[in-house]
Amino acid sequence: MDGQHDGPRREEIPAAISAQTEEFARRLATADPSRLAEAALATVGSLHALIAALRPTGEEFRIAIDFITEVGHYADSRRQEWVLLADVLGVSSLIEDQNSARPRGATPNTVAGPFYRADVPETALGASISRDGKGEPLAVTGRVAGLDGQPLAGAIVEVWQANAEGLYENQEPDLQPEFNLRGRFRTDPQGRFHFLSVKPKGYMLPADGPVGRLMAMLGISLERPAHIHFRITANGFETLTTHVFDRSDPAIGRDAIFGVKPELMAEFRALPLNGGRRRHALDLNLVLCPERQGESAHAGRK
Ligand SMILES: [Fe+2]
Questions:
Q1: What global pTM score does this model have?
Q2: Which SUPFAM superfamilies match (predicted)?
Q3: Residue 262 sits in a domain of what CATH number?
Q4: How far is CA 161 from each of CA 71, 181, 198, rounded to the nearest angstrom?
């Protein structure tokens, strides 16, 4: 600052990067303290620090503006390129980690992703969720318990996954039957559940938009390792929304949306061939933590 403004004293502005940073803080100083003002100050300060570090040219600034403009053009009711951008930058995952940190021993929460459907009818334990029979059979067994190891009877287990081609039912509604590879089960008195499915394949995030092009220029993979999504709801417990990943998938170490955690990697065990057909089995332990005071049953949902 050149001293001609009546702003706050220099020592009141931590780590001011530039005259613009100080002036922005001075303009905000007259506003009532709020979360918005706090976020604006932190965001603008970080942006100015970035500019000071990178020293972009005018041409580079124009390219950046063009990029974010194009991201906006790819965002509508059917496709959300902004969410995709947040996902591949690790922003969605970081926010999820901060908002749904679980105590040691509890299964970690992850984002639900875009393919969840809430309207899947409940089916009896043991049913198959493969409604077209395509793919290598997979038998899933699991147990839902609280942090103290107590089995949770009557918990609702929702499951959804991609097919053997890496595609969800709602991505190709004309090709896959309604509710294919989606299920809703209720745990038995021992907190157990089991159902039949097919082995899912991993998939790529959309590569045809500005986010995909940016990641290609950076050499960053858009692959997601094969996984099955779960959501477990039980009275008195925080709802758990998570994925279980195939630890043998070659992309396990480079999930495009940062969802893989050691506790979420599982073995899709190969079983003896059945009439020449490959079969697999997956066994899971899912641990919920008790609902904390002042939090609703929706805690942990996205
Ligand atoms: Fe998924």
A1: 0.85
A2: Aromatic compound dioxygenase
A3: 2.60.130.10
A4: 27, 6, 9
